[in-house]
User: What shape does this take?
Amino acid sequence: MSSSRSAKDFFRPLAVGAPTPLTEIPARPSRAIHFFDPSNEKMAGKIPGMVGTVDVLLGNLEDAVKADNKVAAREGLVKIGQSTEGLGGGGTTQLWTRVNALDSPWFLDDVMTLVPAIGDKLDVIMVPKVQGAEDIQYVDRLLAQLEAKAGLERPILVHAILETARGVANVEEICGASPRMQGISLGPADLAADRRMKTTRVGGGHPGYLVRQDPNPDQPDASRPTYQQDLWHYTIARMVDACAMHGIYPYYGPFGDIADVTACEDQFRNAFLLGCVGTWSLHPKQIAIANKVFSPSVEDITHARRVVAAMGDGTGAVMLDGKMEDDASLKQCLVLVRLAEELAA
Ligand code: GLV
Ligand code: MG
Assistant: This one.
């Protein structure tokens, strides 16, 4: 996540007007953001061996870390950041953290500890339960002050989790709230609770959320086919549009049913097809699923390259395998070709 800008560019007076989208930040692969609990010694001990096997390692300080372990998690992350070769700060695997929420008693100490200690290694800070632009602007200002104090050259980027109804209503302003904005993830568990959805799962579908085929006099009701619908389609589509508008990256979030690798792959693929660039991994086996799903397939790349070649100067229309291709389908193909190039770089 290298940038031509320095941390000083972020230390600026208040009320600077419209934020600049982060379009000049080159995409670094972040197909799988693998969560670990730095207070869990067994998990933390495996981190050095995971460098190079996953795009992002994220030290989680928020939910899933017990209140009594918050300080140990923070300190564990500092130790890992300071001692792990190749992790963060332009290394082979990015180092992210998910800090505690802004309304928690731990957020301020999280940021005040991490930035001076491992600010040169931390690529992205994930902020949970973001409600509006003001949350991001506060984090942006605080980071700017701490970076200036620590003499950091490289700005730490910010990633928001979309997991409140108010956050969804404000998603466009959140995406554009600061030039530090790197991306947004869906937080389906907190969002479901905040919206008063009647589900008890962490991401994924629900067998009760379905449509049934129309009645047929020759068919008993019970055998009429049903089709399960995607609970998260609306939110993901909204998040993708807001991110595209501001030149930042959309991500699926957690898929809690670790054993159901098939449903996990399906859910990740829906998000990929809708425009997401990556997802969270809560277990090492989800890393492989994410890497596969969020990399375009060989067949898709081959087809996309054929369309690019057939379209010559990129204008007009051609027939390929009986299908019409034109300027617009060329643009879709270029999305896949460019993604393949970025992942291969
Ligand atoms: C993630 O934080 C979620 O609430 O789903
Ligand atoms: Mg959450």
About this structure: Residues 10-24 have pLDDT under 50 and may be disordered.
